[in-house]
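Task 17 of the worksheet. Students: predict the tertiary structure of the chain below and write it out as structure tokens. Keep your answer in the requested format; marks are given for formatting as well as content.
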Amino acid sequence: MRNNQHSEKTVDLQRRSLLKHAAQGATLAGLASAGAFTGLAQAQKQPAYAPMALGLLIKPFPDPEAKIKLVHDLGFSTCFLSMDNWLGKYTPALAKQFGDLLSKYSVVATTAEVVAPQPLKWNFIEGPTTIGIVPRQYRQARIDALKETSDFAKMVGIGHIQTHCGFIPEDPNDALYPESVAAIKQLTEHCAANGQSFLMETGQETPTTMLRMIRDVNNPALGVGLDTANLILYGKANPVDALKVLGPYVQAMHAKDGKWPTDPAKLGQEVLIGKGDVDFTEVFKQLRALNYKGAISIERETSGPQQVEDVKAEKVYLEQILNKINHA
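Model answer:
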């Protein structure tokens, strides 16, 4: 009897969850179809920045000025915007606020990323059915969220939109593979119409699978956001070797370190840069050889004062490597 009650409650919770996500998707779709951003033609222009300029991944909600000021105060010239908490709140006024703050603190926003709406389970068991645009039940809501973010980013003058596309099937005969191709093609075309590139962040798929996706979508506006740690955390590849496959398509980079997974249910552990398995010297050498023009955005998954102290140490570590390469 208790098991039956538990099952009924579970089904009810699942039904409520699906209804919630459907409502979120409808809201985002409504914003897009209603032409929520009528000022798109009046996009601001972001200034140029040096190739391989160090930057910081920030989550600017709910106080964008505090976060953008922090980027400046830590000595970075660029930032990568994680915008999930702003979904459904984008307005031309907010775009102007972001543009004014970036100008005030002399910071360039290189890329905007969203992975929401929920659920998102960052593990090997539930991840394949919850992350990205691969899972059918969450695909449309995430497409709508990315299009909404693209439209907002255009007003700010941001040239790259990025997301985790999910566990793209390695088998191109899997029914989810052509569906994922169609979804990514749709997103790439939307971003291209806004003068942007659409970037797939490395992690859940092998570099070869990502390369197949790039070729099947066949649009020059589709590129790669290289996350050095994710390739290791998901057990998919060494980032140095991944660059041999994906290097020409890399347009953004997360500098992050990590350890290989040893539990088949859990991702590897993200650690302080320099304490993990990423060879940043070789990664930077390859990027330099590829004539990489993008930024290097530090991502540290701690929080609060500890995150700030970690980022300071990581900045020094990476600057030392870059200085050696530049003077070699």
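Marker's comment: The chain has a mean pLDDT of 90. Strands lie at 54-58, 78-82, 108-113, 160-163, 197-201, 222-227, 250-255, 257-258, 270-271, 296-298.
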